Amino acid sequence: MQVILTGLHGDACEDSVAQGLALYFHVKQVSMVRQGDNDSPWALIEVADSYERVWSVCNQLRGVFHRGKAIHLYIPLHQEDVFHDLEPHQRIDIA
Predict the structure, then answer these.
(1) Where are the alpha helices (DSSP H) in 22-95?
(2) Beta strands in the chain (DSSP E)
(3) CA distance 85 to 41
(4) pLDDT tens-place string over residues 39-86
């Protein structure tokens, strides 16, 4: 599953992002995107966690600052490799 992280500083790198988020996610890969403002890169993070876990962490880290900048975690829509902790009979399907 993928997560987008914004609010980084220009000196952020793949290793520092992976290490910083290792407490919250099972980070598989981090790709830095530096087009645009060099002082505000963002990261595309590949994690091996369920959608429910990722949603919980994104909500938990809402409003958190890192070195004076607010970080934001986004879950991109339409991901193919998303798995859930819940069994199908535990979900609510509203028509």
Answers:
(1) 51-60
(2) 2-6, 27-33, 42-47, 65-66, 69-70, 72-74
(3) 32
(4) 899 999 999 998 889 999 999 999 999 999 999 999 988 877 676 666
- Helix (H, G, I), strand (E, B), or coil: what is residue 47? strand
C-alpha closest to that of 50 among 40, 38, 58: 58
Do residues 72 and 7 lie in contact, with contact meaning Cβ atoms separated by under 8 Å?
Answer: yes
Residues 2, 77: Cα–Cα separation, whole Å: 9
What are the φ/ψ torsions at residue 53 (nearest 5 degrees)?
-65, -45
- The predicted pLDDT at position 25 comes to 95
Give the pLDDT confidence of 18-37 residue by residue, as tens digits. Answer: 999 999 999 999 999 998 88
Q: What is d(CA 67, CA 92) in angstroms, rounded to the nearest whole number?
A: 40
d(CA 48, CA 58): 15
Which residues are registered as beta bridge partners of 44?
A: 4, 31
What would the two tokens of residue 76 be? 């991109």
The pLDDT assigned to 92 comes to 65
